[in-house]
Amino acid sequence: VCTTDKGLLSLHGFLCQWTLVAYLDVHRCLEHLGYLGYPIFSQQDSQIYAITVTREKKIDLEKGQTHRNVFLCKVIGSQGSGKSAFLQAFLGKNLAVSPWRT
User: Fold this and answer.
1) Is it the case that residue 31 has pLDDT exceeding 70?
2) How is the chain split into domains, by residue range?
3) What InterPro entries would the database entry show (predicted)?
4) How far apart are alpha carbons 45 and 38 in whole angstroms?
5) What is the pLDDT of residue 96?
6) Is the Cβ–Cβ distance between 76 and 64 less than 8 Å?
7) What pLDDT is attached to residue 40?
8) Predicted pLDDT of residue 99
9) Does the pLDDT at position 71 exceed 80?
């Protein structure tokens, strides 16, 4: 999850986490949208309008294009090999203040 230089959850980090929760548990996401007043503030009849169904991944692979914005990537390596540093650098974070250093 993306954090600020002080290690706090940033807006981008919150949105990334929200996207992941929506991906893993759509029903809970819809429930939370209801608690936040989604249908009222967006002038929709239901939270279901907040969900976008994408085409099958197989079709994306065949066409060589995608409209997805959530991807599952696994970083594998032994302890101390730099997995966390790689991810932090990928996010553009300063590696000198990484809270995961051991």
Assistant:
1) yes
2) 11-90
3) EF_hand_assoc_1, P-loop_NTPase
4) 9
5) 65
6) no
7) 66
8) 57
9) no
pTM attached to this predicted model: 0.41
The residue to which tokens 């997805």 are assigned: 68
What is the DSSP secondary structure assignment for residue 95, as one 8-state letter? G
pLDDT at 13 over 60: yes
Average pLDDT, the chain: 79
| Surface-to-core class of residue 93, CB atoms within 10 Å of its CB (0-12 exposed, 13-18 middle, 19+ buried) | middle
3 DSSP β-pair partners? 9
Q: Name every residue whose Cβ is closer than 8 Å to that of residue 51 and which is 6 or more positions away in sequence.
A: 26, 30
Q: Which two tokens stand for residue 41?
A: 């503030």
Exposure string over 43-78, b if 16+ CB within 10 A, otherwise e: eeeebeebeeeeeeeeeeeeeeeeeeeeeeeeeeee
Q: Which residues on adjacent β-strands are paired with residue 9?
A: 3
